[in-house]
Amino acid sequence: FFSQAPTQRMLRHILRTSRLCSSLSSLNLHKSTVSRHSLTTLSHSIRFQAPSIAPSIRHLSTTQPTMATPTEYDESNVFRKILDGTLPCHKIFETDYCIAILDAFPMVPGHSLLIPKKNYITLMDMPADEAGNMLKELPRLCNAVKAATGCDAVNVVTNAGKEAGQVVFHVHFHVVPRFKDDSSPVRYAKSGGMIEAEAGAAMAAKIQEHLQE
Known about the structure:
The chain is an alpha+beta fold.
């Protein structure tokens, strides 16, 4: 990984050549433009809040036009390039199983990502032990982001599949700072009426039939 933040010129070049965009465009949040200095400062601040952490620069999320969620992993995706060290990132911390980085196009300052090192398209593709080794780091990342940004809460989001809004087809979790009176919270579809007892029992039973031990 690069040990220094890229220049604005480098970022513009990567933006042009890789056709970068926000990987959370489906969540109806406003993107924040953050300077190189503020990204570096925030990355250092979050690292200070999370012990056993090292430096660098962050995720560049690319639009990858596709008709459906791919069935085979594409090693040209932007997260694989970051993991391989061919693209820079603002790295917050790294373990044997995952890395945490700042989103290069944050919805709000402090918007971070947790990414597994192995090649999986969605969370549903991951063995339970591999998922556990990554997800056990979420509380540490969330607490560090909250302390560094002074936010009141965080959204933790993963989009598993194109229809769910996934753009980069390598598993990743977003940690998005939220503030009191936030004008742009993460929005999901409007809740329907309360589920009826018979329909609820039938759906629960149907899902249980497909559980994998």
